[in-house]
Structures are given as structure tokens and as C-alpha cells.
Design brief:
The protein is of the alpha/beta class and 320 residues long. The protein has helices spanning 49-63, 99-107, 116-127, 188-192, 194-207, 212-215, 221-229, 233-257, 273-286, 291-294, 306-319; strands at residues 2-4, 14-20, 24-31, 36-43, 71-75, 77-80, 85-89, 111-115, 136-141, 145-151, 154-155, 261-265, 296-299. It has 2 domains: 2-116 and 305-319, ATPase, nucleotide binding domain (Nucleotidyltransferase, domain 5, 2-Layer Sandwich); 129-301, 2-Layer Sandwich (Nucleotidyltransferase, domain 5), CATH 3.30.420.40.
Length: 320
């Protein structure tokens, strides 16, 4: 576990916030203004549903005893907001569990249960790269592609809370099967995520054994981005290809939603302009005029804290 000391008195109005991922669980206290007052990080226990829920409850118990007004939990799952029950979950065994009800009974405080990318979108809209806009799209590019929509100043969840799965749009009708639980083919997630970049880099390395990609001892997303930043032509080709694929999806979002800004974050977005430039180029080529002329495509600002901050903010939204 990695922890940071409290930066404010526990008496300050705050909520407990959790940002759950497949590999790590970030927890903390968050103030109404989005400041992280205390933060800790744990490796996620994915050995089973009981073990994971026990870990979540233990982490909350460590933080909820100093007058927390509520609890915000961000999870990588589709959530039926009518019931507070996660449906399909990526990398975490929570599907079918009445998680919101269980946590409310256990801790006796209001619980906001939110998709993790939705929470990050709220944070970026209010405090990050989307400040001052009313129509914003967030994409998180990592193992998969997460999405969040802020339309007319409000987080858009859809009919039951399962909207904004922006990685699951088709950009190749006869493409390869999508990842995880998804039954689709040729989805943006399987073609333009960090995982897709690693797969493409491995294919290039196998085809070009003399390349720097082939000589890399551990060819993951970080190594790919590093080589691209160093100017390696093969790595630049891979990042550019991923950016252009991503741009095809983004052009569709521009046509459908007419946003003011599209914010791109997540681990693979550390490639920065090497990724964003081809995205913008494809949007300029393929999106409809007028909408494409006004949209900005920018990097996220809050980094890995966006999910934790967003979980806190949606908890305060619930409290009113």
C-alpha cells in the first residue's frame, strides 16, 4: 500500500472516495471542492467477489470513521443506476452484486456508485481540461477505452446508467473480436486501445526482427511510447496508426454529439501529441464541417487522480 498523509483536518466536510481498477484500488478523502485530503493505494484483490468486497469494505472502514458525509465508489462496470447493481464488469468480479445497498447498510451513509470513466469525466469537466464547457467527451485510453459524456453541463448516463461505452463502437465491420465480455467485432477498443498498440507493436517487431521494437526486452505500452518519443520510426508508425484509428471513432463522436472539447486521457495518452496529432488529422478529414471546425481535442489534465476526484464529486452531488 502507498499512502499520503492527510492535508486537512478530518473535521473538514469530506466524503470517502474509491477508484477501483483491475490492478489497483485508490482510496481517499475528498473535499467538496475536489481536493484530495488523503490518499492511499492498494493492489486490487481479484481472487473472487467475496475477497474483493472484503477489501473494499476494509478500505472504507479505515477512512469512514472521521465524520465522512458520504461515499463515492468508481468501478469499471456497467451499472444499473435504478438498483445500484453492477452488470458486466471489466477485470473485477462484481457483476450481479447489490453493491450500493450493501455498502449503505454496512456504513450507514449515502453511497454514489458510478462507472469509473463517468467519474473521471465529471472531474475533468469541473476541474480539468473541460472547465468552462457545457458539452465535453472524455476518452480514457488504456487496457481498454473508457468514455464519459457531459451534455448541456450534466453527466449523461442514459436510460439506466449504462451509456457512454464509447470504446464499443464499430470502426471495422469485419474486424477482430472485441475484448473481455463484449460480443462485438472491430470495436474501437480492440483496435485503438493501449492493448491494441502493444499487439500491433509485437506484430511489427515480429515482421522486422532488426527493429528497436524487436530488441526491446519488455515491449509494453510504456516502452513503445518511449521509443516513439526517441524518434524510432517503427514505434512512431505504430503510435500514428493507433492515433488514426482512434481518430475514426472521434470523428463519429464529433458528428453525433457536436462537443466543444474532447479530452483524451489514460495511460497510453502519455504519448501526447504523437497520439493526438493523427487523431486531429483524421477528424479534420472525416468529420462533418461546422461541428469539426469548433471542436478542440486536448489531453486530460488530472492524470491518475481523475477517477478518485470524480468519485468524490459524484458523492457530493448525491448529498446535494
Amino acid at each position: 500500500m502507498v499512502a499520503s498523509p492527510s492535508m486537512a483536518s478530518p473535521a473538514e466536510p469530506h466524503v470517502v472516495a474509491l477508484d477501483l481498477g483491475g490492478s489497483k484500488l485508490a482510496t481517499g478523502r475528498v473535499g467538496r471542492d475536489g481536493r484530495i485530503l488523503q490518499r492511499a493505494e492498494h493492489a486490487t484483490d481479484t481472487s473472487g467477489q467475496d475477497a474483493l468486497v472484503a477489501q473494499l469494505e476494509a478500505a472504507i472502514a479505515e477512512l469512514a470513521g472521521d465524520g465522512a458525509a458520504g461515499l463515492g465508489v468508481g468501478i469499471p462496470s456497467l451499472i444499473d443506476q435504478r438498483t445500484g447493481v453492477p452488470g458486466a464488469s471489466v477485470n473485477v468480479p462484481l457483476a450481479g452484486l447489490p453493491l450500493r445497498e450493501r455498502l449503505e447498510k454496512r456504513f450507514g451513509i449515502p453511497v454514489a456508485l458510478e462507472n469509473d470513466a463517468n467519474g473521471a469525466a465529471v472531474a475533468e469537466h469541473r476541474l480539468g481540461a473541460g472547465r468552462g464547457t457545457r458539452h465535453m467527451i472524455l476518452l480514457t485510453i488504456g487496457t481498454g477505452i473508457g468514455g464519459g459524456l457531459v451534455l448541456n453541463g450534466e453527466l449523461y448516463r442514459g436510460a439506466i446508467g449504462a451509456a457512454a461505452e464509447l470504446g464499443h463502437v464499430t470502426i471495422a465491420l469485419d474486424g477482430i473480436p472485441c475484448q473481455g465480455f463484449c460480443p462485438g467485432l472491430g470495436h474501437l477498443e480492440v483496435l485503438a486501445s493501449g492493448t491494441a498498440a502493444e499487439r500491433l507493436a509485437a506484430e511489427v517487431a515480429a515482421a522486422r526482427p532488426e527493429s528497436a521494437l524487436a530488441r526491446e526486452p519488455e515491449l509494453d505500452g510504456r516502452a513503445l511510447v518511449r521509443l516513439a518519443e526517441e524518434g524510432d520510426a517503427d514505434a512512431l508508425e505504430v503510435v500514428d496508426t493507433i492515433g488514426r484509428r482512434l481518430g475514426a471513432g472521434v470523428a463519429g463522436y464529433v458528428n453525433v454529439f457536436n462537443p466543444e472539447v474532447i479530452v483524451i486521457g489514460g495511460g497510453f495518452a502519455e504519448a501526447g501529441e504523437l497520439l493526438l496529432e493523427p487523431v486531429r488529422a483524421v477528424v479534420a478529414e472525416q468529420a462533418l464541417p461546422t461541428a469539426r471546425d469548433g471542436v478542440r481535442i486536448v489531453p486530460a489534465e488530472l492524470g491518475p487522480d481523475a477517477g478518485l476526484v470524480g468519485a468524490g464529486l459524484v458523492a457530493f452531488d448525491l448529498l446535494g
